Amino acid sequence: MIKRPRITEKAALLAEKNTYAFEVDARSNKIEIKRAIKEIYGFDPVSVNVVHTPAKNVVVRGKRGKKAAIHKAYVMLKKGDVIEFA
What is the C-alpha separation between 65 and 59, in angstroms, rounded? Predict the structure, then answer.
């Protein structure tokens, strides 16, 4: 369901506003993500937004390849709830 938290500059700015970014399985929906957050971290999310970034074709040193598709979930928590990442 939830693969890992996304540790980026944008995610750090969102964390100040009680919104956390996670990389999730492509087949999971908002309800499953909400349940997983409650089970893993013990907080009940206020809302969950899901973003599907499609795969892209790339060329590196003349060789063609694909950049993997990323599925992200932005989870908003209640004020005062804080998730600490090590």
Answer: 6
What type of residue sits at position 82? V
Query: pLDDT for 21-58, tens place per residue?
Result: 999 999 999 999 999 999 999 999 999 999 999 999 99
What single letter denotes the amino acid at residue 72?
K
pTM above 0.70, yes or no: yes
User: Distance between terminal CA atoms of the chain?
Assistant: 20
- In the three-class reduction of DSSP (H, G, I as helix; E, B as strand; rest coil), residue 32 is classed as helix
Give the bridge partners for 51, in sequence order: 72
Which structural domains are found in the chain, ordered by start?
A: 2-76 (3.30.70.330)
CB 76 within 8 A of CB 45: yes
Nearest to 20 by CA among 79, 76, 62, 78: 76
Q: What are phi and psi of 28, to 5 degrees?
A: -80, 150
Cα radius of gyration rounded to whole Å, the chain = 15
